[in-house]
Design a protein that fits this description.
Layout lengths: L2 H4 L12 E4 L4 H13 L4 E3 L9 H11 L3 E4 L13 H19 L6 E7 L22 H20 L9 E7 L2 E2 L5 H11 L3 E4 L3 E2 L2 E2 H12 L6 E4 L6 E2 H14 L11 E4 L19 H9 L9 H16 L2
Parallel strand pairs: 1-2, 1-3, 3-4, 4-5, 5-10, 6-9, 7-12
Antiparallel strand pairs: 8-11
Helix pairs in contact: 2-7, 3-4, 4-5, 6-8, 8-10
The structure holds NADP nicotinamide-adenine-dinucleotide phosphate (NAP).
């Protein structure tokens, strides 16, 4: 995805602040790497080899070494089904780590913590898009660990952030959903299966919004360097679909772009969630209202506005197909 199309903003003024990114090798981490390279901003990226987030000492040691004023946390325990078994590890990475980062940043003048959370903090029973003020009620261990991470940041900032407004540290918790970028994700899985199988069955009763990690990286950085208010932001683009809707759209785009697709459009069958049981329950309604984010991005003069999910998925799939044929 050409970043210039999605994040056409100029190099921000960091006012001498140092940036540290955790999770350099994940989908969002790779998008942040591309973005910082594009903007020629100096930044330290840490992956698992440099910092094992399950080890508190390793985190503290890296914070001490680099002394960042801005932290972008792109790392997470993201294996939703495995988390049902690996409860302790998912809690450590998704709940304990954000709290440690918040404890470090909250007392720092003009410090910023950007953390990413998930639609899976909701139970999916609401019939309209979720707002930031809606009550969280996670259905899975993963959702719980991410919800606890949010609470850790909120509570820590409430406790430790006592400076005057212009000096106070800030946090941004970006709740996002159905992320795709460079890594394993639903779209890539569907495109692979589409070249191997004549029939596919895809869940059609869970609603959400696909999020391009390049777009999310742009939003994260623009908020981090802005004068926007601390808080939770539902960070998705416009529109919603089901997994079946997303699979069908991605596969048709790939077919039109010349990928040798085996499955015909009418052979992609919609199925209910109960026909595809997984260890961790998923919310049926993952839709999140992005009005607060859009208003804020407009206010800070940011650029990544009004991208319907189809536009970004189309671009992503076309580039994926292009790369395959090279
Ligand atoms: N993917 C989605 O559909 C989705 C949906 C909603 C919200 N989110 C949230 O969006 C954010 C970014 O997601 P993503 O898709 O970019 O995730 P991802 O591709 O799974 O990347 C997660 C990164 O965290 C790192 N990590 C995990 N455990 C670690 C540990 N113990 N020590 C050091 N690093 C560790 C992983 O390292 P390795 O590369 O070494 O494994 C990986 O690079 C996460 O906060 C996630 O919860 C994702």
């Amino acid at each position: 995805m050409p970043l210039t199309n999605l994040s056409p903003f100029s190099t921000p003024d960091l006012q001498g602040r140092k940036i540290l990114v955790f999770g350099k090798d994940g989908q969002l981490g790779i998008s942040l790497q591309k973005l910082f390279l594009h903007l020629k901003i100096p930044v330290v990226f840490l992956g698992r080899e440099q910092c094992d987030l399950s080890q508190e000492q390793s985190i503290l040691q890296n914070l001490k070494q680099y002394q960042p004023q801005i932290i972008l946390n792109a790392a997470a325990y993201t294996q939703v089904d495995m988390a049902e078994q690996e409860h302790d590890l998912s809690q450590k990475i998704n709940s304990r780590v954000p709290r440690i980062l918040a404890e470090y940043i909250a007392p720092i003048p003009r410090g910023v913590l950007v953390h990413v959370s998930t639609d899976y903090v909701f139970d999916g029973l609401k019939t309209s898009p979720y707002l930031e003020i809606d009550e969280t009620r996670p259905m899975s261990q993963y959702g719980m660990s991410k919800r606890d991470g949010e609470l850790g940041i909120l509570e820590t900032f409430h406790r430790l952030n006592n400076r005057a407004k212009e000096e106070a540290a800030k946090f941004f918790i970006l709740r996002t959903s159905w992320v795709y970028g460079q890594g394993n994700n639903f779209i890539r899985t569907m495109l692979k299966l589409a070249t191997q199988k004549e029939q596919l069955k895809v869940v059609n009763d869970q609603y959400g919004c696909p999020t391009c990690s390049d777009w999310l990286a742009g939003v994260a950085l623009q908020l981090a360097v802005s004068d926007a208010e601390s808080g939770l932001y539902h960070s998705v683009v416009d529109g919603q679909t089901t997994w079946h809707g997303l699979a069908s759209f991605a596969i048709e785009t790939a077919r039109n772009a010349g990928m040798p697709v085996l499955v015909k459009p009418d052979q992609i069958f919609p199925i209910p969630t109960e026909d595809y049981p997984l260890p961790a329950p998923r919310p049926q309604n993952s839709m999140m209202d992005n009005s607060k984010l859009k208003t804020t991005l407009k206010k800070i003069g940011a650029n990544s506005l009004d991208h319907p999910w189809q536009e970004q998925v189309q671009q992503y799939v076309m580039e994926y197909v292009q790369k395959l044929s090279q």
